[in-house]
């Protein structure tokens, strides 16, 4: 997968109802995806493109980069129309199967990928292969578990830092 395709994975995760069903609706303790992370990744992609301009998405020509930027602005506009909307306000299955804004975001991401000839079906097949490898590889499972522990520890440290700052501001 070239760099531009790797960078477009944020849009692919938003566009892929298949992946969302597998990792959001039917995710497991070790293999899951959070809807809020998908949105955060798409908005981070928008920010990286804005900050890095033409050097970002090197596999795409200027016209294709402009199309991706326009698509990301349409996604941002959809989100702006419902500023209090949060994907975690819905049960996962309702979000993926029925929620109108999520469906509109998914459709916009899919249309964007199609405009730059990104094959969502090929990407989904590649993701299937990766998941299968993760499921059968004890070494990769161990690495994944270590990353998850590290992530939890980082969250706990961050929460602790915030709590300490708050206590200090209260004079305790």
Q: N-to-C SSE series?
A: HHHHHHHHH
Number of beta-strand segments: 0
Q: What is the C-alpha radius of gyration, as a whole number of Å?
A: 18 Å
Q: Summarize model confidence as the mean pLDDT.
A: 82
Distance between the termini: 53 Å
Low-confidence stretches: none
Query: How would you sum up the global shape?
Result: globular
Share in β-strands? under 5%
Question: In terms of quaternary structure, what is this?
Answer: single chain
Helical fraction: over 70%
Number of helices: 9
Word description of this protein:
- With 172 residues, the chain is mostly helical.
- It has a domain at 3-119.
- The chain is built from nine helices and no strands.
- It has helices spanning 3-7, 9-15, 17-25, 35-52, 62-80, 92-97, 100-115, 120-136, 138-169.
- Helix 2 (9-15) packs antiparallel against helix 4 (35-52), helix 4 (35-52) packs across helix 5 (62-80) and helix 5 (62-80) packs antiparallel against helix 7 (100-115).
- The radius of gyration is 18 Å and the shape is globular.
- The model has no long low-confidence stretch (mean pLDDT 82).
Key attributes of the depicted protein:
single chain, 172 residues, mainly alpha, 9 helices, 0% strand, globular
Topology:
Layout: H1 3-7, H2 9-15, H3 17-25, H4 35-52, H5 62-80, H6 92-97, H7 100-115, H8 120-136, H9 138-169
Helix pairs in contact: 2-4, 2-7, 4-5, 5-7
In short:
This protein is mostly helical and 172 residues long.
């Amino acid at each position: 997968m070239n760099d531009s395709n790797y960078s477009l994975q944020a849009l692919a995760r938003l566009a892929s109802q298949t992946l969302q069903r597998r990792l959001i609706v039917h995710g497991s303790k070790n293999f899951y995806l959070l809807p809020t992370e998908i949105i955060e990744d798409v908005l981070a992609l928008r920010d990286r493109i804005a900050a890095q301009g033409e050097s970002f998405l090197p596999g795409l020509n200027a016209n294709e980069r402009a199309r991706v930027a326009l698509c990301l602005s349409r996604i941002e506009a959809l989100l702006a129309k419902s500023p209090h909307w949060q994907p975690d306000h819905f049960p996962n299955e309702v979000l993926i199967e029925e929620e109108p804004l999520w469906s509109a975001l998914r459709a916009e991401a899919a249309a964007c990928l199609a405009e730059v000839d990104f094959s969502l079906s090929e990407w989904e097949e590649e993701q299937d292969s990766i998941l299968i490898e993760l499921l059968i590889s004890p070494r990769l499972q161990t690495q994944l578990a270590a990353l998850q522990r590290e992530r939890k520890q980082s969250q706990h440290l961050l929460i602790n830092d915030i709590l300490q700052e708050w206590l200090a501001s209260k004079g305790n």
